[in-house]
Design goal:
Low-confidence stretches: none
Number of helices: 5
Shape: elongated
Order of helices and strands: HHHHH
Structural class: mainly alpha
Length: 155
Amino acid sequence: MAIEIGLSKKEREAIARNLSVLLADTYSLYLKTHGFHWNVTGPMFNTLHLMFETQYNELWLAADLIAERMRALDVYAPGSYSQFGKLSTIKEETGVPDWKAMVQQLVDGHESCVRIGRATFKLADKADDQPTADLATQRLQYHEKTAWMLRSLLR
């Protein structure tokens, strides 16, 4: 069945390409945050263990919202590690860094999500796609605030 929601196929596909990167970055950041939650040690253990748990739960829920927006645009969402690996701008961590390096990597990851969220907002706004613009705004607010909170631990 054809979709007619006031956005051309070209607009929907361009927006979905950005959403695919945002989804891959969100999932990659989720996985990294969850791994850090399991493996953090040191004097900040309790604080970071609880903080990371809150963050990975939020990221898990956000991935679903992003994927479902893609489907509302009639574009399939990527859903495999290999697809996410090709799309994500966030580097995988295979080791166990100290807590400060964990926090720095998460700051970098949230800032990556801010950059793709901002680019997605611009595309959505230009296409008059309010639902995607709203989603991008919400993701920007979350990632900017979380990066700030994490960054404050390093000062």
